[in-house]
Amino acid sequence: MSGPLPPSELPRMIKARPLPAEPVLIEASPEELSALAARFGLGAVESLTATVALDQRPRAIRATGRLHAKIMQPCAISGEDFPVTIDEPVDLRFVEENQRAPTPDEEIELEADDCDEIGYAGEMFDLGEAIAQTLGLAIDPYAEGPEADTARAAAGIVQEGEQLGPLADLLAGLKKD
Length: 177
Hints:
This protein is about 25% helix and about 30% strand. It has helices spanning about 30-40, 125-140, 150-155, 165-175, and strands at about 15, 25, 45-55, 60-75, 80-95, 115-120, 125. Strands 2-3-4-5-6 form a five-stranded mixed sheet. The protein has a two-stranded antiparallel sheet with strand order 1-7.
């Protein structure tokens, strides 16, 4: 059993009824940017904005829009921070957790977007935490910075096919074209 979740670094509570008529603009403060950088192991989150339109659906609230962020991400090879720009679509579904659960014999028809639902309880949901999670998913954990090739060369790591020496010659002789 897990304990309560830690507080969100980007809390933006939205009242489920009535939903805001205009798109919601989320802009992270300097403190929130620092907390997000620590959460995701980044050198920095320099900016984060998201514009999200909310639409009431029969069983869910659909949130669509765009996330823009500028981060300093460590290179997967050299470990040095380099700048990355993130521009991601946002397409989320918030579903009330107290809806009737299907019986074991009941057939359920799932649509493609039913798999990424975010449950919420009560009269409000945290759109900011969902945006923070969207940012986390958009970060490429294997991104390579401009110094990756230099770091590989310094460590003696060569690309496939670039090996040198007698064993490399023997291996090349075994390969069929």
